[in-house]
Amino acid sequence: MPDHPNIFVIVSDTFRPDHIGINGAGFAETPELDDLLRRGVTFDNALVSSFPTIPMRTDWWTGRFGHPRYGWQDLEPSTLPDILRRNGYTTQLIADTTHMLRSKFWEHVRHFSFRRGRESDVPFCRLNEPPARVVSDRRKIRVDPGVGEGPVCAEIQPHTNFTTHYEDQAHSSLLAGDVCRWIEGNWKAGPWFLWVDFFDVHEPWFPPEYLWRHYQPRYDGEPMVQPNYSTAEVYSPEELANMRARYAATCTLTSKNIGRCLRIAADAGLFENTIFVFLSDHGMFLGEHNLTGKSLITPEKFDVFPFHREVARHCFTIAAPGIKGDQRSKVFAQAPDLLPTLLDLAGIEAPKQPAIEGVSLVPAMRGDDTPVRSTAITAWSIRLLGNNFVHSRRPAITDGEWTLMLFEPPEPQPPQLYHTKADPGHERNVFSQHRAEAERLYAEFITFMKAHDANAATVERHRPECVGLG
Asked: Is 80 exceeded by the pLDDT of residue 26?
């Protein structure tokens, strides 16, 4: 057994916690993930810090809150795998999340393997024939700015990968095969750090027909393989049901393939000396709040949706040797907490510089329910159309009982306040009745921003007069 435990992190992009069966979803079936959650400690109040794909992974790997400082960018030195490597770990990245390739995450690990072809990534062009149209009504599929009448990513992906029909051809199946082979080749050695990044359940969704028909037996319309990243009102009830069925089927298939990896790990005895982590980076809307997708992307506009729980909650489970399994923790857990938690479990001291801003969740894993923070803040730093880059766009601030959403310039809107404890679905905006609660959460947000290096322009953009609190 190595001096330090192995660390095995599994990420599934866009996996909503309420689509894991053991979490009480009642719709998606995920028996393999259910088993993993029974082995570990699940943080039910895990909330996105820096949205979306790369900002969340940057927060995971650096232990710092990114949205007040930077957005979607390449990683800087002193990341989680850098620290582990200095402490004797072999580091490996296996992924089909091509954004990580473009953002140079591979520079921070000793070994890396990428499967290409997700979304609009085209490792080999196919010029002899154009991509086939998936949906005839362009209002019902994501059309990015500048695409015009050209193919969208939900059409490029099957064209690039020669549309798959069988389960073993699915992206998650191919990636799981890589992971299983890696485990077979390394289970006796250690310590090692393995980060596996499944782009599933991110759309477009092309699960085998028998899987999505398990959730929607009768449907003969066009395949709703990708949401429009806009309003849900353009879809018929049957089309929305098909979107949800395809998402649920992809959750089931991803769970099945993660289960393949975990079965080999279990057979090799790795649960005795390995920390296992299951994460997702955020969720998405499937018609809730009259929205589909996770942000606003149309030919004319690029912006952020409100951070309701369907998007803002993410999966966060840790199973570790010596830690009792089948536990639930209610403390706020956010992405920067991953790095100090894993170092704590591995018995490695965190570096002093740059300062780690996350908090070790090990006490919570041992049953201490003392809050690690009073509020959790979710926001995005993005480059809006017109090349206007803004930090901490449309933040959501919650203390667990109340949730405040701010809508700063450009296009300011009045604040929204929800009594989350009594109204978890955020159906009733009670800002006018409980303004004092909104002002309290706003004050905590400004304090957080100033403590995390937000520049003067960002603080100015969130002045009370700019967000409807003046």
From this structure: no
Confidence tier at 25 by pLDDT (50, 70, 90) = low
pLDDT in tens, 132-157: 999 999 999 999 998 989 999 999 99
| CATH number of the domain residue 393 falls in | 3.30.1120.10
**How many CB atoms are closer than 10 A to CB 431?**
17
The per-residue pLDDT for range 34-64, each reduced to its tens digit, is 999 999 999 999 999 999 999 999 999 999 9
Q: Is the pLDDT of residue 1 over 50?
A: no
Q: Would you state the pLDDT for residue 410? A: 85
**Domain around 198:** 6-365
What pLDDT does 95 receive? 98
DSSP assignment string, 394-443: EEEEE-SS-EEEEEPSSS-EEEEEE-TTT-TT-----TTT-HHHHHHHHH
Q: 365, 384, 416: which is the final residue of a domain?
A: 365
- Cα distances from 269 to residues 11, 158, 164, 175, in angstroms, run 22, 38, 34, 22
Return mean pLDDT, the chain.
Answer: 95
Whether residues 338 and 443 fall in one domain: no
- Does 324 share its domain with 438? no
Task: Tell whether 71 and 166 lie within a shared domain.
Answer: yes
Tell me how far CA of residue 75 lies from CA of 2, 57, 144, 348, 393, in angstroms: 29, 9, 26, 22, 21
Contacts of 285 (CB under 8 A, 6+ apart): 227, 232, 291, 292, 293, 294, 305, 308, 310, 311
220, 112, 121: which is closest to 171 by C-alpha? 121
CA distances from 46 to 311, 331, 397, 413 (A): 11, 8, 13, 27
Beta carbons within 8 Å of 402's beta carbon, 6+ residues apart: 417, 418, 419, 420, 421, 434, 437, 438, 441
Please answer whether residues 13 and 200 qualify as being in contact, where contact means their C-beta atoms are separated by less than 8 angstroms: yes
- At 415-447, the pLDDT tens digits run 999 999 999 999 999 999 999 999 999 999 999
**Single-letter code of the amino acid located at 78:** S
| Summary count for the chain: helices (H), strands (E) | 13, 18
Q: Find the length of the chain.
A: 470
Which residues touch 151 (CB under 8 Å, ≥6 apart)? 130, 131, 159
Q: How many CA atoms lie within 13 A of 179 on its CB side?
A: 29
Q: What is the pTM of this model?
A: 0.97
| Pair 282, 131: CB distance under 8 Å | no
